[in-house]
Amino acid sequence: MALRAYMPERATLDVDILIHERDAQVAQSIFIESGYRLMGTLSIGGFTVQIENEAPIDILTRSDPWLDDAFAHAVLDSAGIPVIPRAYLILIKLQAGRTQDLADIQRLLALTPIAERVMVRGIVEQYSPELTEDFDSLITLADLEFGLPGQ
């Protein structure tokens, strides 16, 4: 869902909610008290809940040092739902490294002004320096596929 704040929405069946790891127990209790069933835990951290006749919801838990800053600077998507800033969304997807995540990053970067790309690169260098080269490659691929931003 966070992607729709920054680019045209793609079809997806899942809903992911990102919370701080320290809030996991409280969040889980609230979902259960609201009628959701706990479906299991996620290998990447978190859990899945589901209410009857609805799609499951993945509650992703993280404890990254940047998480509080990302939450403090959340932006609203087209439905008014707060989502983390594009830079941190790119960082999370880069860290996940799945094929769809990398494709999402390319599409995100295609719509990201060059000055903001520089800022995102700084965040990648700070929190996942081992992924900086991958980030640079994704910028190149985005520019080759979609053209430079603003052109």
Descriptive overview:
With 151 residues, this protein is an alpha+beta fold. The chain folds into 2 domains: 1-84, no CATH class; 85-151. The chain contains 6 helices and 6 strands; from the N terminus they run E-H-E-E-E-H-E-E-H-H-H-H. It has helices at 24-33, 67-72, 86-96, 99-110, 114-127, 132-146, and strands at residues 15-20, 37-41, 46-50, 57-62, 75-76, 82-83. The chain has a 4-stranded mixed sheet, covered by helices on one side. It has a two-stranded antiparallel sheet with strand order 5-6. The radius of gyration is 16 Å and the shape is elongated. It starts with 14 loop residues before the first strand and ends in a 5-residue tail after the last helix. The relative contact order is 0.14. The mean pLDDT is 90.
How many domain units?
Answer: 2
Distance between the termini: 27 Å
- Separate helix tally: 6
Q: Nearest-angstrom radius of gyration?
A: 16 Å
User: What structural category do the secondary elements indicate?
Assistant: alpha+beta
User: What share of residues are in beta strands?
Assistant: 15-25%
Biggest sheet overview: 4 strands, mixed
Helix and strand element order:
EHEEEHEEHHHH
The 3D shape can be described as: elongated
The largest sheet has its strands arranged as 1-4-3-2
Low-confidence stretches: none
Helical content (DSSP H or I, runs of 4+): 40-55%
Average residue-wise pLDDT? 90
Please provide the count of β strands.
6
Features:
151 residues; 45% helix; two-stranded antiparallel ribbon; alpha+beta; 2 domains; four-stranded mixed β-sheet; 6 helices
